[in-house]
Amino acid sequence: MFERILIANRGEIALRIIRAAKELGCETVCVFSQADRHGPWLEQADHTVCIGPGPSSESYLRADRIISAAETMHADAIHPGYGFLAENAEFAEVCRDCNIEFIGPSPEAMALLGDKISCKRMAREAGTPVFPGSEEAIEEPTEAMEVAREIGFPVIVKAAAGGGGRGMRIARNDAELADGLAAARQEAAAAFGNGAVYVEKFLEHARHVEVQCLGDKHGHAVHLYNRDCTSQRRHQKLIEEGPAPGVDAKIRDGVCESASSLIRNAKYSGAATVEFLMDRQQHFYMLEVNTRVQVEHPVTEAITGVDIVKESIRVASGEPLSIHQEDVQLNGHAIECRINAEDPDRDFMPQPGLVEVFQPAGGFGVRVDTHVRPGYRIPPNYDSMIGKLIVHGCDRAEAIAKMKRAIDEFRIGPIKTTLPLHRRLLGSTPFVEHDFDIHWVEQLLEKQPDAVV
Ligand code: ADP
Fold first, then answer.
1. Residues paired with residue 359 on neighbouring β-strands, in sequence order
2. What is the separation of C-alpha 84 from the centre of its chain, rounded to a whole number of angstroms?
3. Ligand 1 centroid, distance to 208 Cα (angstroms)
4. pLDDT (tens digit, 9 = 90+) per residue, 204-258?
5. Do residues 47 and 32 lie in contact, with contact meaning Cβ atoms separated by under 8 Å?
6. Atom of ligand 1 nearest to the CA of 438
7. What is the CATH architecture of 4-103?
8. Which of 247, 239, 245, 242 is closest to 225 using CA atoms?
9. What architecture does CATH give domain 130-201?
10. What is the residue extent of each domain of the chain?
11. What topology does CATH give the domain 207-447?
12. Whether the CB of 288 sits within 6 Å of ligand 1
């Protein structure tokens, strides 16, 4: 096991990793930016190192500063968390060159699964269901039109190196496709330095269902079943739950097994999520693979009892996975609500500033992952998520009731958060009946924009 782990992240996920490292007997070094110098999570780390000013481009994204902090502090591993450098294969490679273990996949596995074209090719080989569409990058409009004729409009042009919803264009006819191809290529080249794009079928009404996987360096991989993340706004997940409701157990198991095969074939170690869209007939189509721990991992921890963060540290140190597929048993239902410091009544305007009141919910089956406490000042520089409220019940109905109760108990002020919106979403018929698609939250907000509270 590692002696000292450097955490190249901030906020709730830094705290989550510090806790896991401590339980494994590892010392922790947490890097921080000047804007985070009063970050409460830093108190829990054994050592802290300032790596630059507030903007992440000058701190949390500075691989050179993070590596020198690790070398100066004699850390033998780096945990990247999510966001920032977590899916940067070059950073993983620099870690390896410096003899520091990157807690996550090898740069090769990350690059293979991070590129959407090579990932899709591997998925086909592993039997993971993918969208019909082009098998290679597309250069000419005529090629794109040929693919579209085969699979039928609407189609979507996507960037191989895509992320954050950039480099995507929907096309409903040949003219839109020609325009979309040029625009997507340009946007992808500018944003990712890689203009490769491909074309696939566009699904109008779908749910987002994803499979949590874990792999080790000994060729083992398991899945920890699935999560539904259909409640989103602008492609940002708001509510996640597991197992995904209303999915036939046989179909679910088939898709989950195909996801772990993909991870195994990629010689992947650590936590990975294979994301899918699911249509009304329960056909699955892979979107992408996230090669890191995800925000919503606690949902899966609740329903499987597996500590995903500890397990990913263990496998990075060379230990085999401590679980076999047959050990993974589903237990009850879990829901997570992301608490964002945003005002849902004012177009989700970010709410940086002083948190005077912070009184988390508690009780049986309630987990709060947050770095916030009363007196904490939310810096304006970073993502607005300030915590996660997770509940675990014996079934979905109990989990929903528990989440409503927990939200009613939670007090945060004077800043506004997404909690009142969550309370409303949980009581809405589409959510209760899980009769929804990835646009349902936006449609609800359009219909009743002022009815959040
Ligand atoms: P990114 O890496 O930019 O997040 P994704 O491949 O995950 O890109 O796609 C982002 C979002 O775009 C998805 O969550 C989904 O809402 C939508 N999307 C992507 N591909 C399709 C598709 N083939 N059909 C319908 N929606 C899609």
1. 411
2. 12
3. 9
4. 999 999 999 999 999 999 999 999 999 999 999 999 999 999 999 999 999 999 9
5. no
6. 16
7. 3-Layer(aba) Sandwich (3.40)
8. 242
9. 2-Layer Sandwich (3.30)
10. 4-103, 130-201, 207-447
11. D-amino Acid Aminotransferase; Chain A, domain 1 (3.30.470)
12. yes
